[in-house]
Every structure is written in C-alpha cells, then in structure tokens.
Specification:
single chain; 33% helix; six-stranded mixed beta sheet; globular
C-alpha cells in the first residue's frame, strides 16, 4: 500500500512540475506605446524603440533573443540558460510590490525608500512597466575611463 501511495504521489508530482515547466506564449508588446504615467531615461526609450523594431514581425516573445548589437549597445546580460536580462533603476511609490514583480522573473534590490535596482528578462519588460507604483525607470550608462 505504501509503495502504491509513493508511486501515485511521484506521478502526480511529475505531472504538476511538467505543467509548470511548459512555456506559455509571451505576447509581443514592444510595439505598444510606453505608459505615460512613468518617466523614462533616454537610454530606456531608445532600447524600447530598438526592441520594437527588432520584434516587429513576432507575435510571441517566448523564443526571442535580442541581437548581439542590442546586447552590446545596452549592456544586456546573457545568462547561462539563454535568457537575456536588462538591469536598471526604478523610482517607486509605496504602492510598489516587489514580490509581484518577482513572479515574472525580475529581481529587485531595495536601495532607498524611493529607488530600487532591478534585473529583468528583456521579454518581460512590458509586464514590468505595468506594475503598480513605478514612477520612473532608468538604464545605467557606461562610463569610459580615459587615461
């Protein structure tokens, strides 16, 4: 009886985990206009425009990989599992919920009461912009040290 119970639990566990691992289609929202209630750095607006141009013919971003040109130009990071992430800073209000943002793969680090740093998969940027409590977003700029 114990063996049958363990086997049943194991099969159910595998079924649940395989359902969670299935990739859902991520709709292409880069062609949409940026929300007007948020202020953006010039670098972020430029990244959004470039992503919109590059993904213009795509209906889903599930398998999208930004070009090497965009990765280099905006200092994006390629992770081992082929996910490309973008890092930057968010200005926020008290309504911002870091755990809700974390549900779609973003990592949030609290820097002050009003500013957090974020690392987010590029394909999840449209979802990040719809999070409540964000008032501004900036991408860091590279500093070139001349000797």
């Amino acid at each position: 009886m114990k063996l049958l119970y363990k086997l049943t639990v194991c099969i159910l566990g595998i079924a649940v985990l395989s359902g969670c691992a299935a990739t859902k289609a991520i709709p292409n929202k880069f062609s949409e206009k940026l929300p007007e209630n948020i202020t953006y750095s010039v670098m972020f607006e430029s990244l959004w425009y470039e992503l919109g141009q590059e993904t213009a013919g795509l209906k889903s971003l599930s398998r999208y990989q930004p070009s090497d040109k965009i990765v280099k130009q905006y200092n994006l990071q390629r992770q081992e599992d082929k996910i490309v992430t973008v890092s930057g800073y968010l200005r926020k209000t008290s309504a911002f919920d870091a755990t809700a943002v974390g549900l779609f793969g973003c990592q949030i680090t609290e820097l002050s009461d009003e500013i957090v740093s974020f690392t987010c998969p590029v394909v999840r940027l449209p979802e990040l912009l719809k999070a409540e409590g964000i008032t501004g977003i900036e991408l860091p700029t590279r500093i070139i040290i001349r000797r």
